[in-house]
Amino acid sequence: MSSLHDDDEDLRREMESHLAQLEDDASRGGASPSEATRRAEAKFGNAADHFREALDEWTRRQRTVRNGLIGITIAALVVSAAGIVINVRLLGDLRATLDGWSARAKQSELGFGVVRYSGALVETAWMSPHGVVRQQLPMLLTDWESSTARFPMECAEGERPRFEFFVTEEARGFFEGIPVGTKMSCKLAAQIDLDWSNGTPPVNHSDWLRAIDPSLQFAGCER
Fold it and tell me: How many of the other CB atoms lie within 10 Å of CB of 145?
């Protein structure tokens, strides 16, 4: 852009130089300053007018080119900014996913690719014809907490909340041999570590809890 501007100024200076030379010649011939200017312009004649018109047209085209380049630059900046916004959003979503996994897990030194998750050992119980049958099921601690956090629980120190639920058709596959409609109970027996090397959190360990979730109820506290 500076080159176009310099060419414009050079042309103007050249024209003014020619006119000034003609004015000097007329002044040396005895003409007054105003008469010298008139004679110089008359001698320069139509060429000066054409020159000015051409110079004005050159200036207009130069301005058009400059505005076009500015528009292209602004468009490029807008596209670049849009790309930055999209990348930031994608990175934000990825970071949120990784942060969610990090909240569930802590890296262990058990081996390459092995992740240690905070787990819960949940004890289920039901009254069979032969007595109470208990079973302990490992799962992610965050899944247990998210399913039970909706209940108002105020247990004394040393007590744990106990929950009751019914075996549904959806949950029957997780409790083989237990009839549909059977009332069962569950509670957090202990917090454990879950070492996992499958690449993703072991969320399937909590499928049984999601299946019985609609019938899950707080049943009290016990030691």
Answer: 12
Opening angle at CA 142, ends 212 and 118, nearest 5: 125
Question: Where a domain ends, among 77, 100, 123?
Answer: 100
pLDDT digits over 67-85, tens only? 766 767 776 776 666 666 5
The answer to whether residues 119 and 210 belong to one domain is yes
Q: What would the pLDDT profile of 102-116 be if each residue is shown by its tens digit?
A: 555 444 456 677 888
Q: How far apart are CA 151 and CA 145, in angstroms?
A: 10
Q: Which domain holds residue 83?
A: 2-100
**Is pTM, for the whole model, over 0.85?**
no
SS3 assignment, position 12: helix
* Domain boundary pick from 100, 132, 152: 100
Q: H or E element: which one contains 219?
A: strand 217-222
| Number of separate domains in the chain | 2
Q: Among candidates 222, 126, 120, 215, which has minimal Cα distance to 177?
A: 126
